[in-house]
Design brief:
It is built from 15 helices and seven strands. By secondary structure, the protein is of the alpha+beta class. It has a five-stranded mixed beta sheet with strand order 3-7-4-6-5, sandwiched between helices. A two-stranded antiparallel ribbon has the order 1-2. Helix 9 packs across helix 12, helix 9 packs across helix 15 and helix 10 packs antiparallel against helix 11. The longest helix has 20 residues. The protein is globular, with a radius of gyration of 22 Å.
Length: 375
Amino acid sequence: KTGARDEPGDLMGVSHFLEHMMFKGTHDISADELNRGFDDLGARHNAYTSNEVTCFYAQVMPERLEAATDLLGRMMRPALREAEFETEKGVILEEIAMYADNPFWVLYEEAVDRHFRPHPLRHRILGTNETITALTRDQMAGYFESRYAADATTVSLAGALDFDVACAQIEALCGGWAATNQKRDAAKPATNQERFGMNAANVTHGYVLGLSDGPAAGDDRRYAAAMLAQVLGMADNSRLHWSLIETGLADECLAAYDPQEGTGVFYVYASAAPDRLEEVTGVITKECTAAADSLTEDELSRVRSRMATAASLEGERPGDRMQQLGRRWTALGRYETLEERLEKIEAVTLDDLRAVAKDFPMTPATLGTMLPEKA
C-alpha cells in the first residue's frame, strides 16, 4: 500500500523507480536468474505503480504456484545495488521523455497537478526529470524500509489452490518482514478550480480534459458514480458519444470515475480539430451540467447490466479475480464476494444516480486544453 501519493515531494517517482528495481535481483538472486526463473515457470508476470499501490504479480499453472510464490516473495526484498540503480535511472528518464511526447499524458499530469495542489495526490507517478536525477540509492533504500513493510502488504491469490498451504508458505517466506506502522493521511483533500491552456510544438490536434470531485473508494456511492460516468462517456453508447462523435465534432471522448482513498475523481476528455475544441468544450460542459436532471431509467438499466456483466466475467478469470481481490482488500481492508458486489450493483436506483450527480457535479472544476503552438 504505497504509491505516488505517499512519497515526499523531493522523492517523487521513487515508488515507480522501485518497481523497476525489484526485478534487478536480491542479495542471492541475480536479475537474470530472477527473470529466467519466472520464464521457466511459464509465468505471466509483471508489475505496475499507481497513486496508491504498487503491485507485483504472477500467473502460473496450479502445479507451479508454490515455486512462483517462492520466487515472488524473495523478489520483494531487493538488493538495490548502486550500479543497477544508476543504470535504471537512465531507463526511467527515457520513460519520462517518452511520455512527454504524448499530448494526452502531458495534459493529464498538468491537470491532476493543478487540481490537487498542494496535496500529494498531485504527484506524477513517473516523477520528474529533476526528482529522478537527484534521487540517490540510499534515499530509495530508506523509502523502501519505511513503506514496503509487512503491515502494508497484501498477498492475493485466486484459482486452483490450497489456501492454508499457501498461507503457511507465505508466512515462512515473509514472517521476518518488519512492521513499520506507516500511515497515510486519508482525509479528503481540498481541490482547486482552474482553467488553463497549454501549447506544444509537437501537437497538431486539440485536446480537452476536465476533473471534478467524486465519492471516495470507501463510499458505497461509488457504484452509482461509476454508472453515472458510463452514462456520460462510455465508449460506444453514451451522451458524449452521441453529442460529439456521432455529430463529427470530436474523434475521441470519454468520461471515467476513479475512486481513491479519501476522495474520488471524475474525468471527462475529448480530442478534436483545434478550431472546434472550444465548441467541444461547450458541449462537454452542457452534458455534465444537465446530467443530474435528465437521467432516465433506460440509461440506468443499460449501464447496470453492463457493470454486472463485467463483474461476473472478472470473477470467472483467476488473474482478474486476483487483481480485484488484492486491490479491494488493500483499499478497503475487507473481502467482498461477487454476489455482494452484484447485489450492490443491482440495488442502485435512478435516485441514487441523481443524488451523486447533485452531490458531486461532473461539470469540470479543473479544465485544461492542449493546442498546437501558436505561430
